[in-house]
Amino acid sequence: MESRASFTAETMALQRAFESHRPPGRRLFDDPYATAFLRPSLRVLAEAARLPLVRHLATGLYDAVAGPGPRASGIVRTKVIDDALAEAMTGDTQCVLLGAGYDTRAHRLAALAGRVVFEVDHPATQARKRAVLGTGPRYVPVDFEHDDLAGKLVESGFDLRKPSVFGWEGVTNYLTADAVDATLAAVHGLGGDLIFTYVDVRALHEPSPFPEARRWVRAVARSGEPWTFGLLPGETGGFLAVRGFDLEKDVSAHDAGGGSRLYRIAIAKRSARAPHQ
């Protein structure tokens, strides 16, 4: 497991900071902590973006460098998952955030206030988060490629008798197929429903039907965090079914409100059926 915090977690924090600095009536969400996770140069940019003209220039510069798709898709996926998690938090439901990065849902969502929230992520990213936010959720350090996710959660106080919902945002595309399967098996075994993102697998191969794909895929590879996994949307329901989940919703960021058609958000309920694998 590498010792550095995630670069993509920081870029997502910048995207959330930009959105949070829009006027209250126009922004999709407010993450008041996002700026605190940025390196000094990006923090200055994010703070300057509180001014409307500077914000327009800053986001335009970001999109010119990153290309069309990443920022808009990141913002939309955050909003969709925020709403889905809030709707799922009924009764004594537990919330598990897989690969939480620098998102601060445990602190900023009213629906999670007073709830048992577990955050599963790389220990280096979690160390940075603890330094900024202090106490809050139950931090569970896990390497998705190697560690026993279910065992780590139970050790941290996950209650197998209570319902649970798992949020898995911006993670699957960086994993191997085996790690995705292992995580889905763990979530099913723990009795959880699932809200997750994935990329259309056609974005990973050329020629791609998505004009923004080549630039996006090459950019994350240069950052040292390449995309390695995707699904074909028409086959996602079947993929989940054999792993013990019923697909309830599968929408692209574009159709959910903006962003790219290659980036998708899915909601699945745990089935009573045992996984077929």
From TrEMBL:
Coiled coil: none annotated. SUPFAM superfamilies: S-adenosyl-L-methionine-dependent methyltransferases (SSF53335). InterPro entries: Ppm1/Ppm2/Tcmp (IPR007213), SAM-dependent_MTases_sf (IPR029063), SAM_mthyl_Trfase_ML2640-like (IPR011610). One of its GO terms (biological process) is methylation. Keywords: Methyltransferase, S-adenosyl-L-methionine, Transferase. GO terms for molecular function: methyltransferase activity. Gene3D superfamilies: Vaccinia Virus protein VP39. It comes from the Bacteria. Its EC number is 2.1.1.-. PANTHER family: S-ADENOSYL-L-METHIONINE-DEPENDENT METHYLTRANSFERASE YKTD-RELATED, S-ADENOSYL-L-METHIONINE-DEPENDENT METHYLTRANSFERASES SUPERFAMILY PROTEIN. Exhibits S-adenosyl-L-methionine-dependent methyltransferase activity. Belongs to the UPF0677 family. This is S-adenosyl-L-methionine-dependent methyltransferase. The lineage of its organism: Bacteria, Bacillati, Actinomycetota, Actinomycetes, Pseudonocardiales.
